[in-house]
Amino acid sequence: MVAPTWIAVADDAVKVGLGALIGGGIGIIATYLSQRRESTKHYNDKKREQLLDVALQFDKFYAALGIYWANIRNAAFKKESEANLGKKDLLSKKEKAAIAKAEAVFFESFPILSQCNTKLLLIGDKESSKKLSSFRETADQFFKESHVDNEKSTQMNLDNYQKKLAAQKISFLDSLHERYKSDK
Q1: Regions of the chain where pLDDT drops below 50
Q2: Closest CA to 122 of 38, 41, 47
Q3: Is residue 143 within 8 Å of residue 107, measured between CB atoms?
């Protein structure tokens, strides 16, 4: 048997070392890619949570708006009926109290839209933010005009607001849905 020479030893060392180096490099790259995938998945899960929270909060606001709209629409109907019948004050104290309560709840719900908008901007959803801002402007205008004593509070005007707000709601929720789908 021939004694190994330094060239043979060096050759074996290079083969073993190179294999270990390649194996270690592949392990590092695989770990990095796996962690990056997990980090992206976690980030997207958080964004989806935020989008779901925005949708639920928006729904609370829309429910308050709907209750107020129904009460004020009923008052407009009675006001227009009383004008046709020549009667006065067809609204009972209970109905007036219900309108006042619904108006207060609706008014107190407006900060929800600001919170939703902040969340949308934090996750970078400018498109949904624009649609929510448009909805907010219409809701503001509706609130300003929809009072029992306001001449603009007619059944027709209130119905027009309801249709416009419903269309803007659908547009906003469609935008949220698109963002929700894209973050899988």
Answers
A1: 1
A2: 47
A3: yes
